[in-house]
Specification:
Elements (H helix, E strand, L loop, with lengths): L1 E4 L1 H8 L6 H12 L4 E5 H13 L8 H13 L3 E3 L3 H13 L6 H13 L4 E4 L2 H7 L7 E3 L1
Parallel strand pairs: 1-2, 1-4, 2-3, 4-5
Helix pairs in contact: 1-2, 1-3, 3-4, 5-6
């Protein structure tokens, strides 16, 4: 099974004090053990870096620490799903069709990446967002 991880889950995996850390980390480690393939959208790497380095945690996560977390969780033992020019066009068209604005474009990009990679599921903590993007494919969502 191939599961694309939303940035929300990657943040929960990385932050031990996150309210969903335990369940997300357990699921992520199951992927590491071979129970499923872990897919990460290339865009999520930048989004995760941004999230980690501005999270209101004590002590703050430094850029160097964020880089180490991303290397461990996203760049080793995962498959990066690259987004290409036509993927951005597909995402913009879908956002337009669904009348989505603002930050929803990032979730639309992940949905497009999941389709491109033929992912079986999207692991997310933002079910409401993805339910707006793929209401007919809600069984595709892995929630925690």
């Amino acid at each position: 099974m191939k599961i694309l991880y939303d940035t929300s889950v990657l943040v929960a995996v990385a932050i031990a004090d996150h309210p969903r850390h335990e369940v997300c980390n357990r699921f992520f480690n199951e992927g590491r053990s071979g129970h499923h393939d872990i897919l990460v959208c290339s865009h999520s790497i930048a989004e995760l870096y941004s999230s980690l380095t501005r999270m209101p945690v004590k002590p703050m996560i430094s850029p160097g620490s964020a880089r180490q977390i991303i290397k461990k969780n996203c760049l080793e033992g995962t498959r990066i799903v690259e987004l290409h020019e036509d993927d951005y066009s597909k995402a913009l068209d879908l956002a337009l069709d669904l009348n989505l604005s603002g930050g929803m474009i990032y979730d639309v990009l992940l949905f497009v990446a999941a389709r491109q990679a033929k992912a079986d599921r999207i692991a997310t903590l933002n079910v409401r967002h993805f339910s707006r993007i793929c209401p007919d494919e809600s069984a595709m969502l892995q929630t925690f």
